[in-house]
Design a protein that fits this description.
By secondary structure, the chain is mainly beta. The protein has 1 helix and 11 strands. Strands 2, 4, 5, 6, 9, 10 and 11 form a 7-stranded mixed β-sheet that branches. Strands 1-3-8-7 form a 4-stranded antiparallel β-sheet, with no helix packed on it. Strand 4 and strand 5 form a beta hairpin.
């Protein structure tokens, strides 16, 4: 059974940093070749914020220049380094893997496997 387990969430002051990690198990490397981070704030839709594939990283405009996605060589762990956090970054953060053809990467329907999420709260 495929598992994606996120860690590293927590509470941080505005301007601070957090580093999220997602470890994948029971999943093929072809599936983990396409991994992404999404987030969902209260009352808002889930949105893709960072994607990593063999071609490199892609970021949503809202996090570009502040967040950095990376992956280990074994393609079992993907990380999200978040800098210069603002209250707008408060959300549940989800790791996802394996592309479903036909959708844009930032849509939740474009990824097959999901973690349970880790909460990030940014306070002033």
């Amino acid at each position: 059974q495929v598992q994606l387990v996120e860690s590293g969430g927590g509470s941080v002051q505005v301007g601070g940093s957090l580093n999220l990690s997602c470890t994948a198990s029971s999943i093929s490397t072809s599936s983990t070749n396409y991994m992404a981070w999404f987030r969902q704030a209260p009352g808002k839709e889930r949105e893709g914020i960072a994607l990593i594939t063999g071609a490199g990283p892609v970021y949503a405009a809202s996090v570009r220049g502040r967040f950095s996605i990376s992956r280990d060589k074994a393609k079992t762990t993907v990380s999200l380094l978040m800098n210069s956090l603002t209250s707008e970054d408060t959300a549940m953060y989800y790791c996802a893997a394996d592309r479903v053809l036909g959708g844009s990467w930032y849509l939740p329907t474009s990824l097959r496997y999901w973690g349970q999420g880790t909460q990030v709260t940014v306070f002033s």
